Amino acid sequence: MRGPVVADTADTTYHHGNLRAALLERAAAVLAESGPDGLSLRALARDLGVSHAAPSRHFRDRRALLDALAADGFTELNRRLSEAAGAPGDTESRLTGAARAYVRFAVERPALLGLMFAAKTEQDPTSCLRELGHESLRLAAALVEQGQREGLVRPGDPHRLAQVAFSTVHGLATLALGSLLDDTPLDEALDLAVDVLLHGLRAPAASV
What we know:
This protein has 208 residues and is mostly helical. The chain has 9 helices and no strands.
């Protein structure tokens, strides 16, 4: 007598939409542990106790899963940056908060950040990833533009100034992840980087 198909039965424990969320949650954990090479739809199905075909209802292939993970990563990063940009305080404190938010995200979720940038630079990235990937820069540019209106930030294209600011913060995060800050604590390095960055962005003093 043929026994019950446990995996198929397990599929029914996931209501509509729950399996996708469970797959992404487990995939994020595997990504942090093993990197993208450790991810496969079949292995995720086994981990969750569902049939090997179940993930295909939500992700047509492994690339679609990776793109969804990257999209979730950008969404979370943009949420943190948006909160920092909208926090109480002056423009300089909000710029500082945004820089800290980016570095914290990078240090907390390095594998995800690497996947996000890899997915964004694929030959044919999805329009969703392009949009999400540029939202972070738009948030920074909006802060720069606000500082210009207040006379705190030097004149210039806000988008280009934001690109330079972003590269400074991303570079610091990369050094931290590569254990290249030596004995300098990350918070101390970040304070100095932000101070140098804000000094460079600051509008020149009016001549008397």
